[in-house]
Amino acid sequence: MDLKLSGKVAIVTGASRGIGRAIAVTLAAEGMRLVLAARSQDQLETLAASLGRECLIQALDLRDPQAAQALVSAALERFGELDLLVNNAGATKRGDFLSLPDADWADGFALKLFGAMRCCRAAWPYLAHSGGSIVNIIGIGGQTASAEFTIGGSVNAGLLNLTKALADRGIQDGVRVNAINPGSIGTERLQVRIRSYAAEHRIDETEAARRMAGELRVARFGEPEEIARAVAFLASPQSGFIQGSILDIDGGQTRTL
Prior knowledge:
The chain is 49% helix and 14% strand. The radius of gyration is 18 Å and the shape is globular. It is built from 8 helices and 7 strands, in the order E-H-E-H-E-H-E-H-E-H-E-H-H-H-E. The model has no long low-confidence stretch (mean pLDDT 96).
């Protein structure tokens, strides 16, 4: 299927590794011109060199209130247009609610929620001009609460609501806004949890991954590329009637409506 993305311009935040990196690789393969944002200059340079496409890298911290506007301005200065914003940046701290200090809460909201909100606000006029789209990478914890994921669940729930609200605004402005909720995906963060589980139960990591997936009642963990392919589809004209949708890509882990 031709997704008709060739030559279009995308900003991908959190692009240096994991899901963000896979999104960048997939969009580059579709012929898009990319603006890659993350905090790690070295990782961004390595990624950009591997893509074989025209890229602009922006090493910045989206917790900075000025960073989102600087990112969008750099994209416009380099490419003159913007067709897609993928908000993927942000990780939140797990742990016992009673032991998580205010600083951890503030940090979680500052990057993932406020960073995404500011990127949407800065990019909106240019996406409206191009008839472009936004894809927010959020997470299933925003729908199903967990005692060990109070910060992430709260942040994700806020982003889910923001997605719906901006999709409502997008109908009149011509901007499509959708979101993806990844489940347990084979990134570095998941590998840390697998190693911890393996050490705790004195088993190897392969068995630990199998048991952890079983406890979640899924057949396996997902791969970053499976999220990336969905992003490309949601960004394309082929999904032109999809607006305000929340796509769970979690192997069936989410069983609520």
